[in-house]
Design a protein that fits this description.
40% of the residues lie in helices and 14% in strands. It is of the alpha/beta class. It has two domains: 470 residues, Rossmann fold (3-Layer(aba) Sandwich), CATH 3.40.50.1460; 122 residues, no CATH class. It has a six-stranded mixed β-sheet, sandwiched between helices. The chain has a four-stranded parallel β-sheet with strand order 3-2-4-5. A three-stranded antiparallel β-sheet has the order 19-20-21, with helices on one face. The longest helix is centred in the C-terminal third of the chain and has 29 residues. The chain is globular and about 70 Å long. The termini are far apart. It comes from Haliangium ochraceum (strain DSM 14365 / JCM 11303 / SMP-2).
Length: 626
């Protein structure tokens, strides 16, 4: 919290000024006190915090494998034969290629419970809460049991049919996405694009592009460019290099930052789209009911904008859905847009404290932003964006040691990106944001309760920060199928794919050892015949012996250190005799840094799994079995 107050993203398209002027923490704290989570929501949030960080589904289920985690599609109830019912039938038919593919993947092990189409009596019913809907599905609280209801959930319909509030709350436990188009043909185009990207990945370089606007004197974009976009580009470049060194596909990183982040540059970037596009700027907004609100709210403000004193925005200042032509091809793209209203707009202002007539209206009815809709209809696999306003609390917080300084908090973003680069499905990668929401919302409710019931002092700055962080993490939404992944990221995308994580780890070990033991050959030289298997086995054994000697010489230990900018690091060292030494990270108040520690624990577990797979492979290699 800076001494100059809170700064929000968002520009009023009609005036060219900020949607919300910088405000003081006390104003936000007053809103926070009146909008705490309900008791039933708190129970679910505490349950989220209590589960194993790497396993949002029940123990023993691989969340990335649809044959274990399952997939469901949920439609709003529409009476058969009505105009709504006839349209819904047309939409289901348009989605048939995608539904057929997900059904084949989810039923890869023959369990019919892992694929659900919630239509007719099983559809979402108007006015239901998330809890009401899940109770009808016979789902109780706790980790997801895919045999009761699948982990990946695609909502088909607008927020006027299935509310944003239901999407937010489902997303605490499940991997949720939304698909909403006005034209039935767009559903068909999206379904065909996803199937094509998974069955025949586009022959494009694996490029991650980072587009970050930075206007001089504009604190919001200065912060997002300096503390979010540029550092994340560096992070992805490092991770991509590490993946390539481990035998994975190489990644190229493209940066379009500051003065280079013009509308023309974004058009050029999308002409040959990257596999991953991460962007941050102001989103634009219009007054409630404005003729252009539905088409352009949430459009992306580019570097061409001349600042808040230049008057009303012009088309040349921003990139909107109309800028994507009918012939645009975004096949295989996965987008993440950090901007106000970048994913959609609720009907009511969730930032303002409700008055006698409720919260002020933002729009005649809630809607999904047009830009991501057009992107999905032009071949994009998924777009992650923000519903309602966005603010810098997503990635920075005040430095308690210096009121003039800020500390970057990018761990959630980095973890999400690392999962995506590693081939995880987008809904599973976004679970880091769900955990952040669960943690901050629970902390907020506890602090308000302490303040009101026990008169425990709590500063406006702390309340404001917790409220903003909780709402920000909650309002990130996936548009598109939550089960998509970066095109070509995994080789197991066959219709019946269902290999577990352990098998994959063992295959990785075998591939690395075989690559190391293979003799060098010229490109023209034919590969060895299959009857050379005994020679290959002998070569592999020699490589294993060398690896064992090298590890023994270094004490056969594993060291893992996880750090985030401005925070203490977590450290673990495991030795061959079973001893474990750990350093637990703490935050500025002296309490355990739960998020960093859980992320660190995840990394330790992954390395332990890899060692276990390595040992299993070696045991099989030295066995007497043919």
């Amino acid at each position: 919290m800076s001494e100059h107050g809170l700064v929000f993203n968002g520009i009023d398209a009609r005036t060219g000024g900020y949607l919300i002027s910088p405000c003081e923490a006390a104003q936000v704290a007053r809103v926070a006190r009146g909008l705490r989570p309900r008791p039933v929501e708190l129970d679910e949030l505490h349950g989220k915090l209590g589960q194993d960080f790497d396993f949002p589904v029940k123990e023993g289920v691989d969340a990335d494998d649809l044959a274990q985690s399952g997939w469901a599609v949920v439609f709003p109830f529409a009476r058969r034969g009505s105009p709504e019912g006839r349209r819904q039938e047309a939409v289901r038919e348009a989605l048939r290629p995608l539904l057929a593919r997900r059904r084949a993947q989810a039923l890869g092990r023959g369990d019919e419970r892992l694929y659900r189409e919630c239509v007719g009596p099983a559809a979402y019913r108007a006015g239901e809460s998330k809890r009401d809907f899940l109770e009808r599905m016979l789902v109780g609280p706790g980790p997801v049991d895919p045999e009761v209801f699948p982990y990946y959930v695609l909502l088909v319909g607008g927020p006027d049919e299935i509310p944003y509030s239901v999407q937010y709350q489902l997303d605490v436990q499940y991997a949720v996405g939304r698909l909403d188009f006005e034209q039935v043909d767009d559903f068909a185009r999206y379904a065909e694009a996803v199937v094509a990207a998974e069955e025949q990945p586009p022959p494009r370089a694996r490029t991650a592009a980072f587009f970050g606007v930075e206007h001089a004197g504009d604190r919001a974009t200065e912060s997002s460019r300096q503390h979010l976009v540029a550092p994340l580009a560096d992070f992805v470049e490092r991770r991509g290099r590490a993946l390539a060194e481990a035998g994975g596909a190489a990644w190229q990183v493209r940066r379009v930052l500051g003065e280079d982040a013009s509308k023309a540059a974004l058009c050029e970037l999308l002409a040959t789209p990257p596999a991953l596009l991460f962007s941050a700027s102001h989103g634009i907004a219009f007054p409630c009911g404005d003729p252009l609100q539905r088409e352009r709210q949430g459009a992306f403000l580019c570097q061409d904008w001349e600042g808040p004193r230049a008057g009303a925005l012009r088309d040349a200042h921003y990139f909107c859905g109309d800028d994507l032509g009918a012939d645009s091809d975004l096949g295989g793209l996965l987008g993440f847009h950090f901007a106000c209203y970048g994913a959609g707009t609720p009907a009511r202002d969730e930032f303002a404290r409700p008055g006698p007539k409720g919260a002020p209206a933002l729009a005649p009815q809630p809607f999904v932003a047009r830009l991501p809709q057009r992107m999905l209809a032009r071949g994009a696999l998924a777009v992650i964006g923000h519903v309602d306003r966005a603010w810098g609390g997503s990635f920075v917080q005040a430095d308690p040691r210096n009121s003039r300084a800020q500390v970057a908090q990018r761990t959630v973003f980095e973890s999400m990106l690392q999962r995506l680069l590693s081939g995880s499905r987008v809904g599973y990668a976004m679970d880091y944001f769900d955990l952040r929401y669960a943690e901050t919302a629970s902390d907020l409710a506890a602090r308000i309760d302490d303040l009101e019931r026990y008169e425990v002092p709590c500063s406006d700055e702390e309340l404001a920060a917790l409220w903003l962080q909780a709402n920000d993490a909650r309002n990130f939404a996936v548009l598109g199928d939550p089960a998509v992944r970066i095109a070509g990221a995994r080789a197991d995308e066959g219709a019946g794919a269902g290999a577990g994580a352990g098998a994959g780890a063992g295959a990785d070990v075998a591939a690395e050892l075989r690559a190391e033991s293979a003799p060098e050959r010229s490109p023209e030289e034919a590969p060895p015949e299959s009857n050379t298997a005994p020679d290959e086995r002998a070569a592999l054994i020699q490589v294993v012996i060398r690896h064992v000697r090298e590890r023994a010489a270094t004490g056969w230990s594993v060291e893992v250190e996880t750090e985030a900018a401005g925070r203490s690091s977590a450290y673990t060292r495991c030795t061959a005799d079973g001893r474990v030494r750990s350093r637990v990270p703490v935050n500025d108040t002296g309490a355990i840094d739960e998020i960093l520690w859980r992320i660190h624990s995840l990394e330790v577990a992954r390395i332990q799994d890899r060692d276990s797979a390595w040992i299993d492979f070696v045991r099989a290699l030295f066995s007497n079995d043919p």
